[in-house]
Amino acid sequence: MTSAPFATITRRDFDIRTMSPGAVQTGRELSDEAYQDETLPHVSRTFALTIPQLPAGLRTSVTNAYLLCRIADTIEDEPALSADEILILLRRFSAVVCGREEAASLAREVEQRLSDRVPPAERDLVCNMERVVRITARLDDQQRAAIQRCIDLMCFGMHHFQRTASAGGLARLSDLDSYCYYVAGVVGEMLTELFCGYSPLIASRRAALQNLAVSFAQGLQMTNILKDLWEDRRRGACWLPQEVFSRYGVDLGQLSPERDDPRFDAGMRELIGVAHAHLRNAMSFTLLIPRTQPGIRRFCLWAVGLAVLTLRKIERTPGFTSGAQVKVSHAAVAMTRILTSLAVRSNWLLMRLFERAARGLPLAAASAVQPPPGAGMFAAHIPAATEYGGLQLQPPLEGSGFGSDGSSAP
After folding, report:
1. Residues 233-254: pLDDT tens digits?
2. Structural domain boundaries of the chain?
3. Which of 73, 90, 237, 346 could form a disulfide with 155, with the two C-beta atoms 3.0–4.6 Å apart?
4. In this structure, are residues 363 and 276 in contact, taking their beta carbons and an 8 Å threshold?
């Protein structure tokens, strides 16, 4: 599963799957924290740029959370393992992160079962699982609880969807919402908790931020799903909702990139509108971050800016047949970083930049941007809140909606 949060950033982030061609050169003389920092650029060029924008008090925990998500992703993606074997390993990995099982033995077992298709950097990360988990154990109670909850929910939820994946897509738009929640929304919630733990002022806005966090993550995740639809299809998976395309007379099971079908383009345009609405919530989230925290704002803004530009390329290239055809150029990435950095303390300027980037994109009605009704479907498998150090945050429930009007707090 090539998937984002990392919300700001979803496990399926921009270029998140781009790997260094060689193995990570990390000696045992490195501290655990130094190992994390050395490894990050080899497994994600994107986060190697964005995480250093965060204040020092957040970098270790956010890097740790990303690497744990990446280990889970590596296990989930391993083609040599059966679905039942993957589920067992993911459950054990979740137990390791929560301190209920030793990391070293699981790391050895997983590494021995990885196929040659796993990039060297990811294999090295699995081998060093114990080092990453030792950092998790040293985090403060709130940070550790937020990360453990995220990994637990992600491991069970993403596997449920992966084992039922097919080229025929998901049945309903609500299924897409649930899928995005488990592979991205949980990361958005985790990052919000980490931000709140870092800053009392951010913590005073926790309710508003958590109300937008899942939507923020879904905007990023949906953008990547739309961009990577043909690559996913070649792997036998499709994360588009048949419900949407049925309205245009399209059977997702019969799709072919060689066929130019305006009915399919119409369905894609509808989903672009939904993703756009979620990204407006992402901007609302970002503008709730105090101006006195420009690093956290940049961390969010670079992801939102790239997502909007990617949506625009998808919308303007209806016949694209690979993600490379709608990838944002290096020049556009650089310009996004420069402009958002210059405007980072001005809500007005940031919204003007967003509106300019999103100009011409379809926009779904607020009613189309709903929380996933099935987000509690794995509740019976998830440890009680007390096992996460008392963290009371729960999966979003039906009816706990959020707006998409792009409004922001001062």
Report:
1. 988 899 999 999 999 999 999 9
2. 32-388
3. 90
4. yes
